[in-house]
Amino acid sequence: MKAYDTVRWDFINNVLKIVGFPDTMVRWIMECVTTPRFSVNINGELNGYFPGTRGLRQGDAMSEYILFLVMEAFSGLLDSAITDGKFQFHSICRKERISHLCFADDLLSFLQ
């Protein structure tokens, strides 16, 4: 599974509020995120529609920005967990104090 498929909408909503987006803009963004409808293409014809239940739409320009904010929030949570002693640096990365690296929708952690 990719990050686009698994990010929860309530987490996105909370991140947008914490970052400081105005309430009206949060509502607009969440309306765009939470109301996708999908269809199945069978032999060149669209058949039926069903609602999405979580995740972000890949290819949607807004999804990239939202995922960036989500990754930043998750990165901050990892940093806090290390500070609180819930995780420790991997022995190889302790000196450099590297706990994780983020790139696009990937996260690589170096923790014990």
From TrEMBL:
InterPro entries: RT_dom. Keywords: Mitochondrion. Residues 1-112 form the Reverse transcriptase domain. The keyword Mitochondrion applies. It holds the Pfam family RVT_1. This is Reverse transcriptase domain-containing protein.
